[in-house]
Amino acid sequence: MADLTNVLNESWSLVEERSDRVVEHFYARLFLAYPRLRDLFPVEMAAQRDRLLAAIVRAVRQLGDPARLDEYLRGLGRDHRKYDVRPEHYAQVKVCLLDAIRVHAGERWNDVYEQAWNDVYDLMAAKMIAGAEGGDEPPYWNAEVLSHERRGRDVAVFTCRPRQPFTFRAGQYVSLECAHRPREWRTYSIANSPRPDGTLEFHVRATGTGWVSSALVRRLRAGDLLHLAAPMGSMILDTASRRDVVLVAGGTGLAPAKALLGELVKYNRTRWVHLFRGERQGDGFYDREHLDRIAEKYPWLSIVRAVSDEPGYPGERGAIHDVLSRHGPWRDHDFYVAGSAPMVRATLSRLAEMRIPPTRVRYDAFTDC
């Protein structure tokens, strides 16, 4: 498997700087050859292009961890049922994807690269198809919005209740669609552990380019109907571990951290938990009082807040990965990291510098779209 990974990385390096053109070529070829597939995709394709590349890169990186790759791809296959993806579509996508990579790789492309991409694509497709065919879950769940609150200028917290049984684990995320942006699915972490009443909480921050997030913050109301895809993600508690826990949350990456805390308060008695929370400005710390009440009730929880863009802030200042490294030591802890993609990358890099074993680090990276 290591040899396959090396070949894939080597061949991808031929097109990495032109990856945008690879994706454009792929979709143009796909929709020209199979025009009926266009209806499976959103009208606005920018975010979809980013997700395709992210899925490819993530799968290649996880080839050395078969168990994690299997879990990821099966979950991805279940998730794709919401698009009405059929088994025969995978072969059609393969033809167009390999053609796009081959064309943009140029003269250095060879038979070894071709075979490697054939093999890894067939592996990915088989696991995704198996995931889609396993179980009797619906393609998506209908969920009614019960409450919607603004928590600051650009953040909203809302709760909803699926109309059918919905099983998930604390720390997982779902793809979500709302009527304000039909056919545009975006991923958001569930901000609570499973509750007896079946309700789900979400934290969303609106950004200038995030059409779905902006709609969820500014237009969503109680009574609206959402569609939720099957839960995904492996940022769940290692219940067999007795190590202390470090939660690192940037922005609305607080959502899965809160879910994990909600799970820990149900049974934890022996593990110290350290929450590092980063925001750009001090007024961005929404839900501060709620978290402080948890820390007052459970002495095993400590909270460190830091801002990166407010020189006069009276508390910790700096990027959250820098603040994290000023505390510790962390050699014997489990880490859970959530936030924007740059924040997660910086934190993972710092943990690697601190020689934290990758097996003790679980993470999710978010984009606001």
Automatic annotation (TrEMBL):
It catalyses: 2 nitric oxide + NADH + 2 O2 = 2 nitrate + NAD(+) + H(+); 2 nitric oxide + NADPH + 2 O2 = 2 nitrate + NADP(+) + H(+). GO terms for molecular function: 2 iron, 2 sulfur cluster binding; heme binding; nitric oxide dioxygenase NAD(P)H activity; oxygen binding; oxygen carrier activity. Its EC number is 1.14.12.17. Pfam families: FAD_binding_6, Globin, NAD_binding_1. Keywords: 2Fe-2S, Heme, Iron, Iron-sulfur, Metal-binding, NAD, NADP, Oxygen transport, Transport. Gene3D superfamilies: Globins (1.10.490.10), Nucleotide-binding domain of ferredoxin-NADP reductase (FNR) module (3.40.50.80), Translation factors (2.40.30.10). Its cofactor is FAD; heme b. Residues 1-133 form the Globin domain. Residues 138-238 form the FAD-binding FR-type domain. PANTHER family: NADH OXIDOREDUCTASE HCR, PROTEIN RFBI. In the C-terminal section; belongs to the flavoprotein pyridine nucleotide cytochrome reductase family. This is nitric oxide dioxygenase. It comes from Actinoplanes aureus.
